[in-house]
Amino acid sequence: MTARTVILLRHAEAGPPEPGQGDIDRALTRQGRTQADQVNRWLQQHPEWRGIEVRVSPAKRTRETADRALAGWHRGEVVEDRRLWNASLDTLFDLLGERTGDLLLIGHNPGLEQLSRAWTGMLMPVSVGSAHVLTIDDDGRARAADRFQPSRDAT
């Protein structure tokens, strides 16, 4: 068996909720849309991941991030998975245990950050619009293989 790739992508910047709007319905800001477009440009440099399985939280901001970040790059289905909404570390481990191949998760903190730390032993902040690429060996040991951080200057 070969190493498994798991990409943890935190949604891009979202605005505050409108009056009467739930947290799950918050949309991306202009800066968030720019961040998601930057993720797309980064992913375009990695054709080896184009067929990766994608799971996305049902939150509006994660779905909007997915739409922009994966546009014209991803070849495959994007599955909305309710378990990614405010997922705990245990829930993320359960979800990953069900999947055997390469996987891109588009979700939220603190779960993504906790998962990255639990697997690598390193505290690496997963800020909005950023991605961590982990390589998991056959024994379940992970290493940080790559990281993407959007530019704060771009608008």
Write the layout of secondary structure elements.
Blueprint: E1 4-10, H1 30-44, E2 53-56, H2 60-70, E3 78-80, H3 89-98, E4 103-107, H4 111-120, E5 131-136, E6 142-148
Parallel strand pairs: 1-4, 2-3, 2-4
Antiparallel strand pairs: 1-5, 5-6
**Helix and strand sequence:** EHEHEHEHEE
Q: Strand sequence of the main sheet, in spatial order?
A: 3-2-4-1-5-6
Instruction: Based on Cα principal axes, name the global outline.
Output: globular
Compute the gyration radius: what is it? 15 Å
Helix content: 25-40%
> Quick one: CATH class?
Alpha Beta
Low-confidence stretches: none
Instruction: Look at the structure and name the CATH superfamily.
Output: Phosphoglycerate mutase-like
For the largest beta-sheet, the strand count, sense and barrel status come to:
6 strands, mixed
- Per DSSP E runs of 2 or more residues, the count of β-strands stands at 6
The overall pLDDT, averaged over residues, is: 94
Number of helices: 4
CATH architecture: 3-Layer(aba) Sandwich
β-strand amount: 15-25%
Distance between the termini: 43 Å
SS-based structural class? alpha/beta
Total domain count: 1
The name CATH uses for the topology is Rossmann fold
Folded structure, characterized:
- By secondary structure, the chain is of the alpha/beta class.
- It has a single domain (4-14, 24-148), classed as Phosphoglycerate mutase-like (Rossmann fold, 3-Layer(aba) Sandwich).
- Helix 1 packs across helix 2.
- Helix 2 (60-70) links the parallel strand 2 (53-56) and strand 3 (78-80).
- The protein is globular, with a radius of gyration of 15 Å.
- A 6-stranded mixed sheet has the order 3-2-4-1-5-6.
- It has 4 helices and 6 strands, in the order E-H-E-H-E-H-E-H-E-E.
